[in-house]
Design brief:
Blueprint lengths: L2 H11 L38 E7 L11 E8 L2 E12 L10 E12 L3 H9 L13 E12 L4
Parallel strand pairs: 3-5
Antiparallel strand pairs: 1-2, 1-4, 2-3, 4-5
Amino acid sequence: MKIQHIIPILLLAGFCTVSAQTNNTPAEPISIKLDNNGIPIGTLGFPIGSYLTIEGVKAKQNPMIMANQDLCLVETVNGIKLAKPVTIEIEKAKGWSNNVPFVFKGYETFGMVGTPPAEEAAAKEAGRKDFMPMQVVWHLSFYFVVTSVEAPKN
């Protein structure tokens, strides 16, 4: 996707919400910050798509968030300890468990979660009575894609 197509999407997404950050729920709005090239800054403080090494532990599941998510509490990014740990969803990680420190390499990206308002409007316009929107509020969600797993640095 070209950068000129991404920026309008991100401006629209700025009115949506993010669930990946610590202390944020899907109902809390957050503004999207961009770097000098127009790339969004993720919840870990780097432009999305940046190759990162993250360290932390598996986060306890929040009952308000979908049960099939793997969440981690990131304490260190690229060897730098964060002032406040960040909770983020992890994709493509296998074999890690609660209270066991990890080191993942990969990148942060984002997507939309929930039922878009257009789906509900289209169903209503078509007179569909069987339409069931997801119970998750339509929102922007950052997540970390694991490209490799390393042993903790302990």
